[in-house]
Amino acid sequence: IRRRAFCSRFTFPSLAAATVPGDRVAIAVDEGLPCVAALVRGAVESFEKAGVDRESISIVTTDGDTGRLCREEFASHSARVPQVVVHDPDDAEDLCMFGINKRKEPLQVNRTIFDADIVLPISPARAGGHSACGCLFPSFSNAEVIASYRTPENLVSPHDVAKKAKEAEEADWLIGSLMAVQVVPGAAETVAHVVAGEPRAVAQRCDQLYAERWSFVSPRQVSLVIANISGGAEAQTWQNVGRALLAAENLVAEGGAIAICSNLETPPGESLSLLMKSADLEKTARRILRSDVADSLPAWQVVRALQRGPVYFLSQLEADTVEDLGFAPIANLGELARLASRHESCVVIDDAQRAIVAVE
Question: How far does CA 33 lie from the centroid of its chain?
Fold first, then answer.
């Protein structure tokens, strides 16, 4: 990752012009970043080149695995490892109030981010023009707010999605996020583009670059869509299963099937467990729609796919678990090939968790 990506002018001054001696910096790292450790090291080295001491730089992550990868990256290149903070949304002592929203509710953010003079969020660009400016909020807020943003009921209509995105953008501005870095992923969890600068301009540019890289058009619908989730263990998540199902839904013909190919080994969470041996899929869908736990959105995407038609699933999970969720388990690639041979038409989507698929 070239350091100059973080120093370039993109409707914002260079880091050297934006910092002064003694500044405290918080680099806020969102989930789902490819090459996350190298990206964070590039950001830290760019701040050092701009005159900020490494001891004044903190890396704030939303999960322990990202924090571990960052520590290992710095330890392999230097004895000086920046402070790494894993955000705990349930820890009141780790939160500070930074404003009030239009509903007169207090807004909170991670204390390390609140105390910083300069905050640099680094986040991945999202599918479908969702490289929103809200890179800090709600990810680094309190548990109640985070839960409200992952309830499928709040995310099913374009109006609600736009409303939440606007709230998040306004909150980021109140926190003091005046610049941002976003990453457009490449194939197999690589990096295609790094864009740095003013948050709104960065988001707009990344939406464009993402659509150019990940939009695909099929001449027609098919009876079987094979959606492949690429990448290592960090990419094998239920969130990416949901994204792959979303990419496949427009391409599968009525009465057709979807096959998800993954190396997922994470057991179903609370919302997904509602599907286990569900006798009434409609009733279960209504419960998931109002759920606000970590896997609520992928559970909603799974239940919608099951309501449309059969879903086959290749993973590292036990076959009984896969069947209890309502999927048809696939044991290996040989079984997948035999499944494809029984269908009159088939399309394979690689990196399906990234893809934006349309039909002519």
Answer: 7
Inter-residue contact 292 to 150 (CB < 8 Å) = yes
* 244, 352 Cβ separation under 8 angstroms: yes
Tell whether pTM > 0.85: yes
151: three-class secondary structure by DSSP: coil
Amino acid present at 286? R
Q: CA angle, corner 331, sides to 329 and 332, nearest 5?
A: 130
Unique residue bearing structure tokens 């909150």 = 171
* Tokens encoding 335: 């079984």
281 in Cβ contact with 303 (< 8 Å): yes
CA 168/CA 163 separation, integer angstroms: 9
Q: What is the residue-wise DSSP string for 265-318?
A: -PPP-HHHHTTTT-S-HHHHHHHHHT--STTHHHHHHHHHHHHHS-EEEESSS-
Tens-place pLDDT, residues 118-177: 999 999 998 866 555 568 999 999 999 999 888 998 887 778 888 888 888 889 889 988
* CA angle (185 as vertex; 180, 190 as ends), nearest 5: 120
Size of the chain in residues: 360
Question: Residue 256 class from Cβ within 10 Å (0-12 exposed, 13-18 middle, 19+ buried)?
Answer: buried
Radius of gyration of the chain (CA): 21
User: Which pair of structure tokens corresponds to residue 282?
Assistant: 């409609």
Question: What backbone torsions phi and psi does residue 240 show, to the nearest 5 degrees?
Answer: -75, -30
The long-range contacts involving 66-75, CB below 8 angstroms and separated by at least 24 positions, are 66/29, 66/31, 66/33, 66/36, 69/36, 69/37, 70/29, 70/36, 70/37, 70/40, 70/41, 72/37, 73/37, 73/38, 73/40, 73/41, 74/41, 74/44
Structure token digits, residue 94: 């780790």
Query: CB of 184 within 8 A of CB of 35?
Result: no
pLDDT for the residue numbered 14: 66
Rounded to whole angstroms, how far apart are CA atoms 123 and 181?
7
